[in-house]
Specification:
Helix content of chain A is 43%, strand content 19%. The radius of gyration of chain A is 23 Å and the shape is globular. The chains are: A alpha/beta (403), B mainly alpha (312).
Amino acid sequence: MKHSTALLAGVAALALSAGSALAQVSDDVVKIGVLNDQSGTYADLAGPGSTLAAQMAVDDFGGTVLGKKIEVVFADHQNKPDVGSSIVNRWIDAEQVDVVVDVPTSSVALAVQEITNRKGKVHLNSTAASSDMTGKACSPTGIHWTYNTTALANGTGKAIVAQGGKSWYFLTADYAFGHALERDVSAVVKAAGGEVKGVVRHPFPNQDFSSFLLQAQASGAQVIGLANAGADTINAIKQAGEFGITQAGQKLAGLLVFLSDIHSLGLQTAQGLQLTTGFYWDMDDETRAWSKKFAAKHNGAMPTMVQAGVYSAVSHYLKAIKEAGTDDGKKVVDKMKELPVKDFFARNATIRADGRMVHDMYLAEVKKPSESKGAWDYYKILRTIPGEEAYGPMNPACPLVKG
Amino acid sequence: MIRILGLVVLVAAALAAPYFFYPIFLMKALCFALFACAFNLLLGYVGLLSFGHAAFLGTAAYITGHSMKVLGLPPELGILAGTAAAALVGLVFGWLAIRRQGIYFAMITLALSQMIFFYALQAPFTGGEDGIQAIPRGHLLGFIDLTSEIALYHFVLAIFVFGWLVIYRTIHSPFGQVLKAIRENEPRAISLGYRTDHYKLMAFVLSAALSGMAGSTKTLVFQLASLTDVHWHMSGEVVLMTLLGGMGTVFGPVVGAFLVVSIQNYLAQMGSWVTIIQGGIFVVCVLLFRRGIVGEVLALIRKLRERQARTG
C-alpha cells in the first residue's frame, strides 16, 4: 500500500515537472513573423519599416526571453489573402512561428485572424483598419493594436465638429469599405450636433476627382470628409490642393491617412488636412528619442503610427512571455491583457477582453509649409482623444464579450 | 512500356507528395495547374487568347464560398454550384466574345471580366474588400472530414486528375481535331463545312467551367474567396503560367503553375523581390525558350529522335 502511494507520488511529481517543462518555450525559439506588403501600396507605411520595428523591439528586449533566442522573419503577402494565408499556414505548421505581426489589408488580416485562432497562435495586428477584427472576427489569441475604423471615425468626426466644423460633405469610395466609413462618420457627426449636407460616391479606384471636388466645393460645407483610402485619398488631396479648396476656407478631413502619405504629398498640397492618428513622432522626448533611433536605421524616414505600433506590440508580447513563463498563444495573450501597457507609444492603455488595445488617439492638422521647421515636421496635435471616447464600447458581435 | 512506367511513377509521386511537401502548397499548385490547363485548352488548342479568365475562377470561388458558408451546402455540391456558375458566365462571355478575333477578342474578355470584378466589389454577398472568410470545409459525401489536410489533398488531387483527363480526352477527340483545325486556319475549317463558332463557343464554355472548378477547389483549400481571384492580375498570372510551362502541351501548364506558385511561396521571404524575379523569369523565357519549358523539352526529344532515325 505504502509502496504504491510512493510510486503514485513519484509519478505525479514526474508528471508535474514534465508539465512545467512542456509549458515553456515551444521548439526552443520564439519566432516572430512579420507579414505585410513589402513592395506595393502599403510598403511605405508598414513594409520593411515594420520589420525593422519588430527587430528593434527584440534587440531592446535583449534578444532572448526565458533563456531562449528570439528570431524575426518576414514575408511579402502582396495584399493577396491566398498568398498570406499559405505563408502563415506554413510558418505555423513547418517553421515554428509563434506570433504573426503587422498584416495590412483587411482581407488578409481577417484570414490570418482565422488561422491563428484555429491553431492557437498569436496575431498582433497593427496595420489593418477593419473594426471587425475585434467585432465578429475577434479571436482569443488576436490583438488589434494601433487603430481601427471606429477610432478614426470617432476621432476625426467628433473632434472636428467640436472644433466648429458643423457641416460635412462626403467624398466616398463606392464600395463596402467606403460606405462603412461614411456611415460611421455620419453617425458621429450627427450625434455631435453637426449636419451632413451631401455625399458623392466615386468609383474605386479613381484617378480624376475634379467633378467630385467641384460638387463638394459647391455644397458650401465646412468640411469635406474623405471616406476612402490609399491612392484614392492621395489623389483627392492632391487635386483638392490644385483647386485651392483648403486655401478657400473649406477643411479636408482624411480618415485613413498616414505620415508617409503626407511625406509623399508634401506640405504644400496637404496643408490644413485634419486626421486622426495613434502616434506622432514629435510629441515628447520619449517619442522623439525612439523615433530618431528608428529613422537612423530607416534612411531617415520617421515611423508611421503602425510601425511604432509594431514595436510597442512586440515589446509587450515579449514582456508577457517572460511574466507568463510560456509562449503558449492563449496564455500569453491572457497575460498581455492582464499586464498594464505602458511605453512611448501607448498612453493610458489597456487591452480589452475583445482584443482591442485601447489607447489615446490624437487629432492632428497638417502644418503649413511656413510652420514646418524641417524634414518630417508635419503635424500639429490639436487634441488628445481619450481611448474610451475613440474606441467606444465593445461590440456585442464578438463572442468574447460577455453579456 | 516506358510510358506506362512513367505514369505509374507519376501517380505514386502524386499520392506520396503530401508526406514530403507542405500539403497546402501542393493543393494551391494543383488548383492553379488545373486553372492553367483549362486556359491552355483555349489558348493552346483553339488559339484564343482570353484575358478574362479570372472572372470564371472568381465567380466560382464566390459561389462556392457563399453556398457553403451561408447556405450550408456540402463541399461536393458547393464545387458543382461554383463550376456551374462559371460555365454559365462562360456561356455569356463566349457568346459575345467569339464574334471577334485576336486582340479584340482579348479586350472583350478583359472588359467583361472587369465587369465581374466591379460587381464582386459592390455586391453585398461577396464581402467587398474583406472577401468571404472562414468558409467551412465540411465533410465530403457526409463522412470524409476535409479538415484533415491529407484527406483534402487527395480530394483536390482527384479533382485535378478528373479535370486534366477531361481536357486530355477533349484534345484527342474528333472535336479536338476540329479545334486544332480552327487554330491553324479558320477559313479553311469553315470551307470544310464546320460551324466554327459553335466549336469555339463549346471550347470556351468547357474552359470556363474547368477554370471555375479550379476556383471552387481553391476556395475549399484556403477557406476564403476574395477580390484577388477576380482581379485582372489573376488573368495575367494564368497567361504567365501557361506560357512558362509551354502552351499547347498537356503538361506544360502544370509545370508552369508549379513553378509560379513555388516562386510565390518559397521566395516570399525575399520581400519586394518576388515580383521582380517573376518578371525576370518571364523575360528570360520569352527571349530564350519561346515554346515554354515543356515545349522546349519536347522539341529537343523530337530533334534527337529525328537524328537517330536519320543515322539509324
